[in-house]
Design a protein that fits this description.
The complex is a heterodimer.
Chain A (H helix, E strand, L loop, with lengths): L4 H33 L2 E5 L14 H7 L7 E3 L5 E3 L2 E7 L4 E6 L13 H12 L14 E6 L4 E6 L6 H5 L9 H6 L12 E7 L3 E6 L12 E6 L3 H10 L4 E4 L2 H4 L8 E5 L2 E7 L9 H10 L2 H9 L3 E3 L22 H10 L7 E6 L7 H13 L4 E6 L2 H10 L4 E7 L4 H9 L6 H4 L4 H12 L3 H17 L3 E13 L3 E2 L18 E2 L1
Parallel strand pairs in A: 1-10, 1-11, 15-16, 15-17
Antiparallel strand pairs in A: 2-3, 4-5, 5-7, 6-7, 8-9, 9-10, 11-18, 12-18, 13-17, 13-18, 14-18, 19-20
Chain B lengths: L1 H30 L4 H6 L8 H11 L5 H13 L13 H36 L4 H15 L2 H16 L15 H35 L2 H8 L4 H38 L5 H10 L3 H29 L7
The chains are: A alpha+beta, B mainly alpha.
Chain lengths: 513, 320
């Protein structure tokens, strides 16, 4: 025994270190919970990338800045346009002029009252080329933005464009003080009118907000909100169970299923959709019958099950909102192998054909599962789909240049089909190259829907568009999945919004019991 | 004087190595598809006009020729300026200044525990070859080498959070001088996970080295002359086995810096590993270049110190 006394010392020290850590579980269990109770911490795998609302593209940036900044109008839970900083609006001059009445007694974080001059400066900044606002094209028809009194703003459009309202609802069109714009401080010091104020930002780690005492809707109950970046959803689940965060934003059904029943989970349909985009301009996929064979051989139900364990909904081109596609496809809304074979015969390829589809699990973790499921279904009619999984930046570059035959994509959606598809299939569309397909019919239908200001008229126009897209198998629309918010049982009043960019908006009415 | 010359020679070769690393990492990063604009905008880049893309290129400085970018970076680097993060617009030195202490603390804890496990059980095993003590030591080394750290880390996090509602690393990280107790709890578990692999490698090396020395003539002579057991183990066996143990510890410390990348992700520690992963995803070249260079410098410097340490522990390796 004596001879190993030195070694015993080392072993004892190691055991002591381990024991101290484990023993402390009981001690820190309480301290971590109490530390968290004064701050509402949200765990998310993403991190805030930029704090200039006019240039953000990352969903979390939208969500975080959507708590600081507000827009003239917004989308509610039913995806309808409702007032925000504009209390009312009216189209005139054949839908070429939009007049907005502004909410009064709204203060920016710097204490100044919002006026029409701030709105004009904000929208002009969004439209300016130097800003590089990715949503600028949504108000591309606006040729003039003018104040008409301290609380009225008039937008003049080059053509009838009722979809401009949808364009104004994005955080990329946030209203900010004219003084901050001219001082050039927007990219470093957020200054908005929303329920929370910017407090601190540690890149890749956390983003902290404090309650805005001057918020026109009343000071929020939560004094501090912190968005904490937790790199894996499993770790978010662990942090929630440890009580160190009050809410976890999740997208993986497998992780959600491991949460204890005591932690309530809210889920909403994500305002996006998964589709297999096809490059229809060359090769076998330029043959509409070959594309229709793919559409009919596709088993969307199986893909939904394999990719997200059935946690979603099969959708057509317009996944949600008043113009949601129903049925999901004009041709083969469900798998029809007999018809698929008939289309193959018509395409002159009775034994099938092959093509390659790109995926990126970096961008959409489910894309490879979707591809494998689809691959086995297509094989039933002799269509061979090769899969090429790419890193995110490689995928993006190939996608933007249209350097693919087919691409599994997760695209952002909008209740307004013109906003969704004008950029892909409209005349001179920005994303015409990756869209791969263009036709005069589609352009005409998009324009007709955009110019039509009656609900019934628009519904008919958008149904035509749905039919054109699916009966030509322009792309193969697959499904929309759920977003999840796992909550601590102490959280009251939070409702996860279906609008991706403002999913956290109800934090203004949330409290911790 | 000869020792001084050896230090100078090693320092110069270290600088040449780091210069080579800087070129390699610079070129490799530029070979990756995409740039900071692609990473920042994603597919939304397609929605921008040519004028808007040009404005972003200027903003991110991605339009300059590669050689010009390299010299500009190297010039700034030599002046102590690591540049500005393309993603956050924060100085890279600020980001690294926040992340580096976390990683160093984690590496230090892991190394101390790993050496403790490795040396302690390695010597213990070697003193009882073929007996149950040796079986325990060998078992620990096999387990440590066989279980990947990311699996052990994940299992530990899930176990602690579900069974004990305990996951201190998910609280905002606090520095040692701000709250030593919470800091200890945040660091100890990831350090334990990291240390197991390190300890296993050192354990095997220590056991083999001690066994080898144990059978040499001078060791038997020392025992025959009646040297106490403790003095025999530590002064005669361990000191003579120390060269091999030092080599392995140095190598492990170098790998440890890379190993923290995964562990920091699992335990949510805001260290260099997380900074590196996020920056690669964002094509934030100034940050990636600096972080990789620091990792490389750490590896090279540790090995240089190990080489110099040989001259302290083994007089035969001193320059003549």
């Amino acid at each position: 025994m004596k001879r190993i006394i030195g070694l015993r010392g080392v072993a004892s020290a190691l055991l002591a270190v381990s024991s101290v850590g484990l023993f402390s579980t009981t001690v820190l269990g309480a301290s971590s919970s109490s530390a968290a109770s004064s701050t509402f911490v949200i765990g998310t795998v993403n991190s805030v990338q930029k704090i200039d609302p006019d240039v953000v593209t990352n969903f979390l940036d939208f969500e975080a800045l959507g708590l600081i900044y507000q827009t003239l109008v917004q989308e509610n839970a039913n995806l309808q346009i409702v007032p925000d900083l504009a209390t009312s609006w009216a189209f005139s001059n054949g839908n070429r002029t939009l007049t907005l009445q502004l909410r009064q007694n709204v203060k920016f974080d710097d204490g100044n009252t919002m006026t029409s001059a701030d709105v004009v400066a904000s929208l002009n900044r969004a439209e300016a080329t130097a800003t590089a606002d990715p949503s600028a094209s949504f108000i591309g028809s606006v040729t003039n933005i003018a104040a008409s009194g301290p609380n009225t703003v008039v937008l003049t459009m080059s053509h009838a464009d009722v979809s401009v309202l949808e364009g104004l609802a994005t955080v990329n069109m946030a209203i900010m003080p004219a003084s901050a714009i001219s001082a050039g401080t927007i990219a470093t010091a957020p200054d908005g009118t929303g329920p929370f104020q910017y407090s601190a930002w540690v890149p890749s780690t956390s983003f902290t907000l404090t309650a805005n005492p001057n918020y026109w809707g009343g000071k929020p109950a939560l004094s501090t909100v912190e968005l904490e970046t937790i790199p894996s959803e499993q770790s978010i689940s662990s942090a929630l169970q440890a009580g160190t965060i009050q809410m976890g934003l999740l997208s993986e059904p497998t992780v959600v299923s491991t949460l204890p029943k005591t932690d309530p989970v809210q889920k909403v349909m994500d305002l996006s959709y998964r589709a297999l985009q096809l490059q229809d301009k060359k090769g076998i996929l330029s043959n509409v019958d070959a594309r229709l064979a793919i559409a009919c051989a596709t088993n969307r139900k199986q893909i939904l099950q394999d990719a997200v364990f059935g946690q979603g909904k099969i959708v057509g081109p317009v996944p949600l909102g008043p113009y949601a596609t129903s049925p999901v496809s004009a041709i083969c809304p469900t798998q029809n192998l007999k018809l698929a074979k008939a289309y193959l015969k018509k395409a002159g390829k009775p034994k099938g054909f092959s093509f390659t589809a790109i995926t990126s699990t970096d961008l959409d973790s489910t894309s490879a599962d979707q591809a494998v499921a689809m691959q086995s279904e297509l094989a039933k009619v002799g269509i061979t789909m090769h899969i090429s999984n790419l890193a995110s930046n490689a995928y993006i570059q190939d996608w933007l240049k249209g350097k693919f035959q087919a691409a599994f994509a997760e695209n952002g959606a909008d209740p307004d089909p013109y906003v969704m598809y004008g950029r892909y299939f409209g005349a001179g569309a920005d994303l015409g190259v990756p869209a791969g397909y263009s036709s005069k019919t589609l352009q005409t239908e998009l324009l007709a829907g955009d110019e039509n200001s009656t609900a019934a008229g628009q519904k008919a126009d958008w149904q035509k568009l749905n039919n054109t897209l699916t009966s030509n198998a322009v792309w193969i629309w697959l499904f929309d999945s759920y977003d999840f918010a796992a909550l601590s049982p102490t959280v009251k009043g939070f409702t996860l919004s279906p609008v991706n960019t403002t999913q956290l908006s109800s934090l203004a009415n949330t409290s911790i019991s | 004087m000869t020792f001084f010359l050896a230090v100078v020679r090693r320092t110069l070769s270290t600088l040449v190595t780091l210069f080579g690393v800087s070129i390699i990492i610079f070129v490799v990063l530029r070979l990756l598809p995409g740039n900071a604009v692609t990473a920042a905008m994603g597919v939304s880049e397609g929605l921008l006009t040519k004028g808007q893309v040009a404005a972003l290129d200027r903003y991110y400085g991605v339009g300059q020729p590669v050689i010009q970018q390299y010299w500009s970076w190297l010039h700034s680097l030599l002046q102590g300026n690591l540049g500005i993060s393309l993603a956050s617009r924060e100085p890279v030195s600020t980001l690294i200044g926040t992340a580096l202490p976390v990683t160093l603390e984690l590496a230090l804890f892991a190394m101390v525990i790993g050496i403790g496990i490795g040396v302690g059980f390695g010597v213990w095993s070697a003193l009882h070859p073929g007996r149950w003590q040796d079986d325990i030591g060998q078992g620990i080394s096999v387990i440590g080498l066989a279980i990947p750290t990311f699996i052990l880390g994940t299992v530990l996090v899930v176990f602690l959070s579900t069974k004990f509602h305990y996951f201190p690393s998910s609280l905002p990280f606090v520095g040692f001088f701000t709250n030593p107790w919470l800091n200890f709890q945040q660091i100890i578990f990831p350090a334990l996970v990291l240390s197991l692999g390190i300890g296993a490698a050192i354990l095997r090396t220590t056991r083999a080295a001690v066994l080898e020395v144990y059978n040499l003539n001078f060791a038997r002579t020392a025992l025959g002359k009646g040297v106490s057991r403790r003095a025999f183990i530590w002064r005669h066996l361990f000191l003579n086995a120390l060269t091999a143990v030092t080599t392995m510890s140095g190598i492990q410390l170098g790998y440890l810096l890379g190993g923290t990348v995964i562990i920091e992700q699992i335990f949510i520690l805001p260290g260099m590993g997380r900074l590196l992963i996020t920056s690669i995803a964002n094509r934030d070249f100034p940050v990636v270049q600096s972080v990789v260079l620091i990792f490389a410098a750490g590896f090279v410097i540790v090995n240089m110190l190990v080489d110099l340490f040989y001259t302290v522990i083994d007089p035969r390796t001193r320059p003549r």
